[in-house]
Amino acid sequence: MHQKRASETTLNVLHLEDSEVDHELVRRVLCSTVESFDLKRVESLEGFAEQLQTRHFDVILADYRLPGFTALDAWQTLQQQADRPPFVLLSGAIGESAAVAAIKMGVSDYLAKDDVAKLAPTIRRVLELHAIRRAKDAADAELARSQKRLAEFAEHLQATIEQERAAIAREIHDDIGGSLAAVRFDLSWLERHASDEAARSHLHSAKEMLGHALDASQRIMKDLRPAILDQGLVAAVEWLAESFTKRTGIKTVVYAFDSSRDIAKAVQLVAYRTAQEALTNISKHAICDLVNIDLSDAEDVLTLEVRDNGQGIAQVELAKPKSFGIRGLQERAKTVEGWLDISSFENRGTSIILSVPLPASAGAMNQETV
């Protein structure tokens, strides 16, 4: 455990140096330029590691060549620390190329011993940069936590939505569907037993309207809870395409894999909803006459592509803050560790591609073990 600094205004400096003369020169420079400091000298790599474990240091000054090791060895030792202070090479026995290489490794700065008079401004500069870097790291960490919370929330929201859809679909099936079917049965009885031709005509019209209502309830149920997924993803996507063509008149062609592979229900649902949302967007915005849907599970990746030959989507539209449909698909893909790619060109259509990694197939595993 690091000891707490005695004073927040005291600059704690660890000096890795085997020359007492050079160490005293550093002390004199700091005395003339720094109001309050504590300077500790070590000569060995072991002493350096021990000091890092027992004290807090604001900055480390290190000669390049020391008996049996170099400053880069000390730098590697420093990497084991969670909170690493700035590391400054203060040496006369290092060439420019070695100094540049050290900086590329992550060393904070290099100062020749002949320029030791510039030590104070060098220390101030590296401390300022270190503070900026720490603030950025903290902001990045908080952003990562926020993104993780957002992803978890999106996953929870999608699961809740699917549960609500299933509940509504059951109510439509059990209550509304059952009631409509009963009314249709009664209307049929009345139509058979009615003697007045006008009444029979009205009853027949009512039956037709009721039939439309039943068809609509069936369609809504399938949209809310795709029970057709029980027959497999290919069958579900083909049903989507057929329904889309009937509803919009846009020719829709499905090219699907022929596989007995068992794909997780969650992955199938994500693929189904992606195709569903893509077709909805096409009907609203694409102005096209052809849609192709490709399904593949090659190379242990489920790939769904929905592309049209319409007017395309401008990049500015995709970047709009309220493009929730596309963002929803992207977040949904993440829930099954997948990703979504969108490409669009003016008057050349739009392509939406969902990719989801799948567990290695038995055939592929057998080939690996041969």
Question: Care to give the gist of this entry?
Answer:
The chain has 370 residues and is of the alpha/beta class. It has helices spanning 20-33, 45-54, 71-78, 96-105, 119-193, 197-224, 233-248, 265-286, 315-318, 324-334, 362-369; strands spanning 11-16, 37-42, 59-62, 65-66, 69-70, 87-91, 109-112, 251-255, 290-296, 301-308, 339-345, 349-357.
Description:
- With 370 residues, the protein is an alpha/beta fold.
- It folds into two domains: 11-138, Rossmann fold (3-Layer(aba) Sandwich); 227-369, 2-Layer Sandwich (Heat Shock Protein 90).
- It is built from eleven helices and twelve strands.
- Strands 2-1-3-6-7 form a five-stranded parallel β-sheet, with helices on both faces.
- The longest helix is centred in the middle third of the chain and has 75 residues, at 119-193.
Q: What is the topological layout?
A:
Blueprint: E1 11-16, H1 20-33, E2 37-42, H2 45-54, E3 59-62, E4 65-66, E5 69-70, H3 71-78, E6 87-91, H4 96-105, E7 109-112, H5 119-193, H6 197-224, H7 233-248, E8 251-255, H8 265-286, E9 290-296, E10 301-308, H9 315-318, H10 324-334, E11 339-345, E12 349-357, H11 362-369
Parallel strand pairs: 1-2, 1-3, 3-6, 6-7, 8-9
Antiparallel strand pairs: 4-5, 9-10, 10-12, 11-12
Helix pairs in contact: 2-3, 5-6, 5-10, 7-8, 8-10
